[in-house]
Known about the structure:
Blueprint: E1 8-14, H1 22-32, E2 36-48, E3 51-57, H2 60-73, E4 76-81, H3 87-99, E5 104-107, H4 124-132, E6 138-139, H5 143-150, H6 157-169, E7 174-177, E8 187-193, E9 199-205, H7 215-228, H8 233-249
Parallel strand pairs: 1-2, 1-4, 4-5, 5-6, 6-7
Antiparallel strand pairs: 2-3, 7-8, 8-9
Amino acid sequence: MMANEFPQTLTIAGTDSGGGAGIMADLKTMQECQVFGAAVVVAVTAQNTLGVQDFMALPQKLIDEQFASLAADLKIRACKTGMLADAAHVHGVVKNLKKYDFGLLTVDPVMIAKGGAALLADDAVTTVRDELVPLADVLTPNLPEAERLTGLTITDNRGMEAAAMALQDLGAKNVVIKGGHEATPDQASDFVLLADGRSFWLSAARMDTVRTHGTGDTLSSCITAALAKGEDFETAIRIAKDFVTAAIANPIAVGNGHGPLNHWAYNQGGAE
């Protein structure tokens, strides 16, 4: 076997002590997707299914050293960013992403946790928009995040389409706007705008569940894993939607609040 040929992926994000979101969700997803996941820890949270109780971003020097360690030894084929804390840390991560070639980049522009806690300082939204979004091979905002990045108000499908085009204008190549936050009672529809201009909707029945902690992390990690294995963007996004749909549809009883997804479900045949 050739050295370093096994597909390797990287998550650049914050931890979740509760195990359901952030780097923990990312690594569980990557494992289930048959790639080898590595991590750069940008921030540490005290968190459970009830919410985020506290967090602290790590010193930039330690973040830089994690990047350098990975670049010196691993062969990362695709990476993703999640929670990046504040403007200074977003800028520091961008510098490292430009310095090292870690393959295709999926940006999950995490701003607010499921329970409503802010995971990104207000001043950092501009930095994400101006510095990080232009590096994104795939950008996966939810509706509130898409609104913050574009300044648009999204109230319907046409609004999602307009926001996706605006995000491409900001430099993102392929855009997935997640419709899980919209008010439609019966289905959750995501709008996908590919770099070549093709677009399509991905719909899944909306499930009556509070066990949706880590949904965005899981989607972006599954996209990252599929890209690392050589799938094209459309295929990677479709696989990830199926993975998340299965993970939500087959809940596991953990915690008393917004519980985690079932990361085993997709491989156990849960993606009907």
